[in-house]
Structure formats: structure tokens, C-alpha cells
Design brief:
By secondary structure, this protein is mostly helical. It contains 15 helices and no strands. This is MFS transporter.
């Protein structure tokens, strides 16, 4: 069977990375539509959102290093197969139960893929004698995919027929192409024993980096909790608080945060991550406060400006937190450390959103959003103070921004 050259294979894997994350954020503009059709509460909505994240965490912890043992291609093809199953479930969904199952399967697929795609890109970039490309693509492709999925789905829901069907059909077609491309890429590692042992979850913080880890916890919580709010309840806030029922606007709400974050992460490549912790926290706090002012006054334009400013902080925070930790940990400690970072980040991404869903169901969405945003802003202020105390070397090795999904 013919094999793609490393540069072509790199482009194919990068496109697959973007497509996976686009599929993960596609439900965000649709949540309001599903909520109206299936008549469920904000709590149920955020539960549908959260089960995806929890399944993703489980897949990351269990299958995070599986490709190091059995090869990149088998894991990627398995993840694509599971993603196809999830998209078919979305395509057929006629109730909340279908959505829950679809999101669980999608979470497992995305977790396995995002544990393997960055490593595959690094391998292929090295074979193509352009190792620097992997860092840039790994840092921007996930956030770019999230923005693409939210924007594309918002456009389709607002202007195309069959809004709860067409987007999944198009994503399925793209995944078929991705599967064909991945089948033709060269395998980049040799199989080695220990596959079963690698499935045992490992989470921990090495003793030498615990002080730095504690110092970045507030900004990690603030940025990921804000992302969880936008990707779960963002569309509902636009519709209920601002009275705007255009689904494209709901998609643009997500794009304002994660799209800006993607551009920011790309622009910051090569910078020493630790120097960005305080500016990132300041931008997160300022953007969140401006957004809250928009919610209080009912001015969507003001809230949009706040979302863009917060997006600058979101992208900078993703780059700074994970990059800073990579400079503190020894190479043999990074796997365990990043498992802990991802776990904490995804818990911050999902659990507060579920709490907000409960609060919005029992009360009203506007005060829930205000309290949620206030907590995020407070955490960002604390992060700006603690960020000055992170013990980092003068230079560091940047790492890719982490992935997330709606």
C-alpha cells in the first residue's frame, strides 16, 4: 500500500486534529435548539456537556500512552471509528438519551485522539526535518477547530435546512476522508511491550514542581471554567439574557473566546511561557468584568468586546500554564504531570458548568452568569498575584496548548 510523504502526512494529521475539535464544539450552537425540541432544563443541557468532558478525561488517563506501545495509526483509526459512531448517534438523535450517549462516545473518541494526534505531528515533523512546525500546529489547531465547529454549526443552524442533521452529515463526510488519509500515513514508532500496563491511569505532581503547580492552579481554573461556561451555556445566555435568537450569534460567542485564543496562542509561540502568566490573568479578569458589564446593562456589543479580551487571556493562559509546567518538570516527569494538569483543567471545564446549570434551573440564568463570571474574575486576580511567584528558569521549552471541547 502506498504511503504519504511526511509533509503530506503532517498536513493530513493536522487537518484531522482540527476536524476532531470542530466536531467537539459543533453541539454548542445546537444546545438551544435541542433544548427547545426536547424540552429539557439548563441542568440537563450542562449534563450533556459535562458527560463529554468526563468521558474525555477517562480516555486521556487510560489511553494516553497507548500509542507509544501499539503505534499511532491503530489508536487514531480507532478514535476515528468511535467518532463516526458518535456522529451517527447525533444524526439519529430524537431525545436527551441519544445526546447523552453520543457525547459519551464522542468524549472517549476525542480523548484518545487528542492524546495521540500531537505526538504523531511531532514524529512526522521530525521526519520532515521541520520539527518547529509541530509546536505551532499543536498550539493552534485545537482552538482553531473549536472556533470552526462553533462558527460553521452556527451558520448551518441559522441558514441551512435540517439544522440538527446536516452538520453531522458534513462532519461524517470529513471523517471518512480523515480515515482514508490516516490509513496512508507512515507509522512513526515501533511497537513495544507494556500496552496493558500503560492503560493504568497515572495522575500525580512530582515533588519538585509542586510549588509552581499550586501557583498556576487559579489561572488554570479561571480560564477553563470560563471556557466551560461559553461552550455550554453561551448560546442560552445570548438567547435569554440578550434576547438574540440568531444561532449564528450563538456560534460567534464561542468564536470570540476560543477563536481569539487560537490566534493569541499562535502569536505567542516562541515566547517564554512564565512571562505570560500575569498578563494572561489580567486579560482574563478584565475581559470577564467587561462581559459582566454587558450582561448587567443588556448590551451585547459590550459583552462581545469582553469576550474578545477574555479570549486573549484564554489563549495566553493555555500557552503559559502548560508551557510553564514543562519548564519545571524533568522529561521523565512530564507524562505524570500533564495527566494531572489535564485532569484538573477538564474538571474545571465541566463541573462549574454543571453547577451553573443547576443554579439556572432553580433560579434564573442572568444572576447565575453574573455569579459565575464574578468567581472567574476573582480567580484571575488571585492568579495575577501568584503568577509572580512561579519559580521558573530564564528560558523554557514551549508546549502545545491543551485541547477542549463543547
Amino acid at each position: 500500500m502506498p504511503r504519504l510523504s511526511p509533509p503530506v502526512a503532517f498536513a493530513a494529521v493536522a487537518a484531522t486534529f482540527v476536524w476532531f475539535l470542530a466536531a467537539s464544539s459543533a453541539p454548542s450552537p445546537l444546545y438551544v435548539v435541542y433544548q427547545e425540541r426536547f424540552a429539557f432544563t439548563e441542568f440537563t443541557l450542562t449534563t450533556v456537556f459535562a458527560v463529554y468532558v468526563l468521558a474525555l478525561i477517562a480516555a486521556l488517563l487510560v489511553a494516553g500512552s497507548l500509542s507509544d506501545h501499539i503505534g499511532r495509526k491503530p489508536v487514531l483509526l480507532g478514535a476515528i471509528a468511535l467518532e463516526v459512531v458518535s456522529l451517527v448517534l447525533f444524526l439519529l438523535a430524537d431525545g436527551v438519551g441519544w445526546l447523552l450517549v453520543a457525547r459519551v462516545v464522542q468524549g472517549v473518541a476525542t480523548g484518545a485522539a487528542t492524546a495521540t494526534l500531537p505526538a504523531t505531528l511531532v514524529d512526522l515533523a521530525a521526519r520532515g526535518d521541520r520539527p518547529g512546525r509541530a509546536g505551532a500546529v499543536n498550539g493552534t489547531a485545537p482552538l482553531a477547530g473549536l472556533a470552526l465547529g462553533a462558527l460553521g454549526c452556527g451558520l448551518l443552524v441559522e441558514y441551512a435546512p435540517a439544522p440538527t442533521r446536516l452538520v453531522w452529515a458534513l462532519l461524517l463526510a470529513g471523517l471518512v476522508l480523515a480515515a482514508a488519509a490516516v490509513a496512508l500515513i507512515p507509522e512513526t514508532i515501533d511497537r513495544r511491550p507494556g500496552a496493558l500496563a500503560s492503560l493504568r491511569p497515572r495522575v500525580g505532581v512530582p515533588p519538585g514542581v509542586r510549588a509552581g503547580f499550586v501557583a498556576i492552579v487559579p489561572i488554570l481554573l479561571a480560564s477553563w471554567a470560563l471556557g466551560g461556561l461559553y461552550l455550554s451555556l453561551g448560546g442560552s445566555v445570548v438567547a435569554q439574557v440578550f434576547g438574540v435568537h440568531d444561532h449564528l450569534v450563538g456560534g460567534l460567542t464561542v468564536v470570540a473566546l476560543v477563536g481569539t485564543g487560537a490566534v493569541t496562542a499562535f502569536a505567542l509561540r516562541g515566547r517564554v511561557p512564565s512571562t505570560l502568566l500575569v498578563p494572561a490573568a489580567g486579560l482574563l479578569a478584565a475581559g470577564t468584568v467587561v462581559t459582566l458589564a454587558g450582561v448587567i446593562t443588556g448590551l451585547l456589543a459590550l459583552a462581545a468586546v469582553g469576550a474578545v479580551v477574555a479570549g486573549l487571556g484564554f489563549g495566553a493562559a493555555a500557552y503559559a500554564t502548560f508551557g510553564t509546567m514543562s519548564t519545571l518538570a524533568a522529561p521523565h516527569e512530564r507524562g505524570e504531570l500533564f495527566a494531572a494538569l489535564y485532569t484538573l483543567a477538564y474538571l474545571a471545564f465541566s463541573v462549574p458548568a454543571m453547577v451553573a446549570g443547576v443554579a439556572a434551573t432553580l433560579g434564573e440564568l442572568r444572576p447565575t452568569a453574573l455569579v459565575y463570571g464574578g468567581v472567574v474574575a476573582l480567580l484571575a486576580v488571585v492568579a495575577a498575584v501568584l503568577g509572580r511567584r512561579v519559580p521558573v528558569p530564564a528560558t523554557g521549552e514551549p508546549v502545545p496548548a491543551p485541547t477542549c471541547g463543547g
